[in-house]
């Protein structure tokens, strides 16, 4: 009887030993895992602490840099729009000499070795300029004409332009306005030397279109709050020495005189006083005072059509019995593109000074883009970003090393006709 008992005792003992060994093994394994987890958590904590330290340092550094930049730049920004004295402007323009007259009431001046465009105006105009727009980085956008400074004097000033008691000082654009080049081809190379009947090349025209579109994209989609120019015209687009386009009259939409480079045209309190100006007016403005970015897009579409055709935004067509009617450029392109022989009509409509020296496929693209910009419905027009995207593709396709010179008819060069001093 003792043998079975021995076997049972041995079996139970062995089982207990096995259970104990298994429990020990499980305990050891769990302990190791726990140690590994604690070690990993410790490393993570250290890593997070280190990252947090770096992040804090980075944030602090960026913050300090920003503060430092703001502190260092705030003084500069305060000086963005300078205050000139009447004596400085008188000296700069040689007492507003007729030899320094650019056109209208705008004079060329030299101050501290820098060329300036000095506009004769009045206190009322100065008071309506949105100077807050010139106290930040927007003032330095490469496709916007910079307002460099102002000058106000008493009713009896010491300048030769005594009828004007205030002056605006702008960045000087050596090659005048787009209107000068497109309409008539009279381009002032240097108003001290001569002017020639010169014409922009096709490639230059494409780049000018893109420059203006980029300026609109900046005003409409990058500035916060967005800005609507309201007075985009070919005469308010200026060309620098490299024929880069810059939009003028920025921040001056509420001024009584909208055309600060008026080219001798009469001013008026009316927002759209000139016949040509009516060609830029979006249809919705005739029945509403709502100001949206789409009105700039409409005006830009008209500028595109001017660049393509060399025609004014509004032309006069004779009717029977000596009557006349106004024909809008925006209406002409709609008729042309709807024609069954649109390609043929478009070729005839293009600026004849270009001859065959342009891409007809690109011309079709721009004509259709302009057509979209001058849609009657504001919501049907593209936004500035979409316009930039399409024009960028066309400019990217231009050949490398393209000559950036304008076309000059040397036989037509003539001395510059200097206009009289402003009243």
TrEMBL record:
All residue ranges annotated as the Protein kinase domain in the record: 92-395
Coiled-coil annotated spans: none
Domain of life, source organism: Eukaryota
Keywords on record: Kinase, Membrane, Transferase, Transmembrane, Transmembrane helix
Transmembrane region(s): 6-30
The keyword Kinase is assigned to this record: yes
Pfam families, A to Z: PK_Tyr_Ser-Thr (PF07714)
Gene Ontology molecular function: any one: ATP binding
Protein name, UniProt field: Protein kinase, catalytic domain-containing protein
Biological classification of the source: Eukaryota, Viridiplantae, Streptophyta, Embryophyta, Tracheophyta
């Amino acid at each position: 009887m003792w043998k079975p008992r021995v076997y049972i005792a041995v079996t139970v003992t062995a089982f207990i030993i096995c259970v104990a060994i298994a429990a020990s093994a499980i305990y050891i394994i769990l302990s190791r895992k726990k140690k590994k987890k604690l070690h990993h958590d410790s490393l993570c904590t250290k890593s997070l602490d280190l990252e947090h330290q770096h992040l804090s340092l980075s944030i602090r550094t960026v913050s300090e840099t920003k503060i430092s930049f703001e502190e260092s730049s705030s003084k500069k920004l305060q000086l963005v729009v300078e205050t000139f004295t009447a004596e400085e402007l008188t000296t700069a323009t040689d007492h507003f000499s007729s030899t320094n007259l650019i056109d209208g009431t705008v004079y060329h001046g030299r101050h501290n070795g820098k060329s300036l465009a000095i506009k004769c105006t009045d206190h009322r105009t100065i008071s309506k300029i949105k100077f807050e727009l010139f106290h930040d980085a927007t003032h330095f956008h490469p496709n916007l004409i910079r307002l460099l400074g102002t000058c106000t004097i008493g009713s009896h000033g010491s300048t030769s332009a005594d009828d004007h008691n205030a002056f605006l000082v702008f960045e000087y654009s050596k090659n005048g306005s787009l209107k000068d080049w497109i309409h008539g081809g009279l381009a002032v190379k240097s108003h001290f030397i001569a002017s020639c009947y010169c014409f922009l090349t096709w490639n230059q025209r494409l780049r000018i279109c893109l420059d203006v579109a980029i300026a609109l994209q900046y005003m409409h989609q990058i500035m916060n709050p967005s800005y609507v120019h309201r007075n985009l015209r070919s005469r308010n687009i200026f060309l620098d020495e490299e024929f880069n386009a810059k939009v003028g009259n920025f921040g001056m939409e509420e001024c009584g005189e909208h055309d600060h480079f008026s080219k001798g045209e009469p001013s008026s309190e009316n927002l759209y006083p000139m016949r040509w100006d009516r060609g830029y007016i979006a249809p919705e403005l005739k029945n509403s005072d709502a100001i949206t970015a789409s009105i700039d897009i409409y005006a830009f579409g008209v500028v595109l059509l001017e660049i393509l055709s060399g025609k004014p935004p509004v032309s006069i067509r004779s009717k029977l019995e000596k009557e006349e009617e106004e024909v809008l450029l925006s209406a002409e392109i709609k008729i042309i593109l709807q024609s069954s022989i649109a390609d043929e009509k478009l070729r005839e409509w293009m600026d004849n000074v270009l001859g065959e020296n342009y891409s007809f496929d690109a011309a079709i693209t721009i004509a259709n883009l302009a057509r979209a910009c001058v849609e009657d419905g504001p919501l049907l027009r593209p936004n500035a970003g979409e316009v930039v995207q399409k024009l960028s593709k066309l400019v990217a396709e231009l050949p490398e090393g393209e000559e950036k010179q304008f076309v000059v008819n040397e036989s037509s060069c003539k001395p510059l006709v200097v206009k009289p001093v402003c009243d």
